Amino acid sequence: MSQPRLLFLMNEALFFTTHRLPVALAAQRAGYRVHVAAPFETGPVAVIRGHGLHYHDLPLKRGGRSLWGEARLLARCWHLIRRIKPDLVHHVAMKPVIFGGLVSRLLGVPAVVHAITGLGFLFIRDDRAARLTRALIMPLYRYALGHPNARVIFQNPDDLALFLGHRLVRAEVTLMIKGCGVDMTVFRPGPAPELPLVVMFPARILGDKGVHEFIHAARSLKAAGATARFVLVGRRDPANPTDVAEATIRGWEAEGVVEWWGFQADMPAALARAHIICMPSYREGLPRGLIEAAACGLPIVTADVPGCREVVRHGESGFLVPVRDGPATAAAIGKLLDDGALRAAMGRAARQLAAADFTVEAFVADTLAAYAAVRPAPSRRASGRTP
Q: Which of 123, 175, 253, 288 is the most exposed place for a label (fewest CB within 10 A)?
């Protein structure tokens, strides 16, 4: 009997290593031969190969819209799936779900799992171009998610309701798995960091992540006499239309509003230097950065929007503020800056919430259960295929 084959189609190799590697390794231990297709990045690909997983390059540009680029992606998905002949394909994020889902259905892949990890700027913006693009991609979603042997994973109830409301997916194939889970032994509370207080924004430097509201809060609180340090921890993302130019970020630094620490590979160490976390995003699937912060026992300020509100209990483990509201963001941060006892109490509540709802063990078990619900028995496979 040959090994069943599992193929991950991903929009980023780094995203795979940070968000799906524990699932892949658990599947490998369960007997799957695991393949990963994602755009090439030297460090993450080395991690993938170092764990004995089979890597394949994928010409995917998350912000790209050229017909030639999308045709290349579609052709590459077709070629990979025909060659690998997977028993199960796990599509993660919008383009892999749509393009991989189309190909998987057309080529008769026995089983698929789709992960809707957030709806992105196309569902945040409401300009004419965004509405037109949504009108074009919804039929593609509907076909891709219509595979006869599928499970579709959602991270928050708002996204699920939207897809059901537009009849993009059948209710009976949907699952709710909150976030991607974190290792509670790695992300854990530690000794109180040194003063001055540090307020940290742990995300890509994007307008849609709420960075402008964070900057507004930092600027206004400093003008009012706050001595806290405001820190951006994350990389730019030029593929996203709301990416902030490096010159702008350096200008904020020169003004003395924030420090930019860039991308941090060791997030437990970075979070150990923070007292307060703030990411007032406009919409999320379910942000790992906030789960990590909660696991580290840090109080959180975030926007009351899909995805973010699942991580914070307002007034208990942090504050939910109106979306796109810089003054409200500043006011919430100010309360935490002024009250050490409140910070400590909210941090303890955040840790309890993370330990109850967002462990990596639960995430892996729930995902493997989704695989078990759709995967055909290994005995149905023909032997002698190429790896």
A: 253
Q: How far apart are CA 83 and CA 254, in angstroms?
A: 53
- The secondary element (H helix, E strand) that includes residue 144 is helix 128-144
Q: Tell me the two tokens of residue 190.
A: 């530690």
State the pTM of this model.
Answer: 0.90
Q: Do 185 and 355 contact (CB within 8 A), yes or no?
A: no
pLDDT at position 324 is 97
Determine contact, residues 31/1, Cβ cutoff 8 Å.
Answer: no
Cα 137 to the center of its chain, rounded Å: 20
Q: Are 291 and 182 in contact (CB under 8 A)?
A: yes
CA angle 351, 354, 356 (to 5 degrees): 110
CA-wise closest residue to 213 among 295, 286, 303: 303
What are the helix (H) ranges across 51-92?
Answer: 67-84
Q: 258-300, pLDDT tens digit by residue?
A: 999 999 999 999 999 999 999 999 999 999 999 999 999 999 9
Q: Would you state the pLDDT for residue 63? A: 57
Show the beta-strand stretches assigned E in the chain. Answer: 5-9, 33-38, 54-57, 88-92, 111-116, 150-154, 174-176, 198-202, 229-233, 259-260, 276-279, 300-303, 318-321
What structural domains does the chain harbor? 5-181+360-380 (3.40.50.2000), 198-357 (3.40.50.2000)
Question: CA nearest 291: which of 268, 259, 264, 263?
Answer: 268
The average pLDDT across 66-83 equals 91
Q: Which tokens go with 26? A: 């658990």
Residues 193-197, mean pLDDT to the nearest whole number: 96
Task: Tell me 248's DSSP state.
Answer: H
Grouping H, G, I as helix, E, B as strand and the rest as coil, residue 294 is: helix
Confidence category of residue 15, pLDDT binned at 50, 70, 90: very high
Which residue, 94, 53, 102, 52, is CA-closest to 77?
A: 102
Does position 8 have pLDDT exceeding 80, yes or no? yes
Residue 46 makes CB contacts below 8 A (sequence gap 6+) with none
Amino acid at 127: D
How would residue 377 be classed by pLDDT, with cut points 50, 70 and 90? very low
